[in-house]
Amino acid sequence: MKKVSFGVEKNFCAECSLALRRFIGHMDGVESIDVENGMVAISFDDAKIPEDMVVRITKNNIEKLGYKLTD
């Protein structure tokens, strides 16, 4: 299992946190999503989903929700 993390300029509201989990959590290979303290961490099985795809989809969805990445 691999893990990628993203810094976000502000904390997610409860609704945005749930939305992010719905957008990403259904993908085959995604094991867990932790959203807290301005960080988003995704644990995934890289045998089922490539890391570059997890990174791209997560970044796109964070930005669609109106948040900016700090990385």
Structure description:
With 71 residues, the protein is of the alpha+beta class. The chain has one domain (2-64): Alpha-Beta Plaits (2-Layer Sandwich). Helix content is 37%, strand content 27%. The chain is built from two helices and three strands; from the N terminus they run βαββα. Strands 1-3-2 form a three-stranded antiparallel beta sheet, with helices on one face. Strand 2 and strand 3 (39-44) form a beta hairpin. The protein starts with a strand and ends in a 7-residue tail after the last helix.
Summarize the structure.
The protein has 71 residues and is an alpha+beta fold. It has helices at 14-25, 51-64, and strands at 2-7, 30-36, 39-44. It has one domain: Alpha-Beta Plaits, CATH 3.30.70.
**What is the CATH domain class?**
Alpha Beta
- In the CATH scheme, what's the topology name? Alpha-Beta Plaits
CATH-scheme architecture? 2-Layer Sandwich
Described by the principal axes of the CA atoms, the overall outline is: globular
Search tags:
2 helices, 71 residues, Alpha-Beta Plaits, 27% strand, three-stranded antiparallel beta sheet, single chain, 3 strands, globular, 37% helix, alpha+beta
Question: Secondary-structure map with pairings?
Answer:
Blueprint: E1 2-7, H1 14-25, E2 30-36, E3 39-44, H2 51-64
Antiparallel strand pairs: 1-3, 2-3
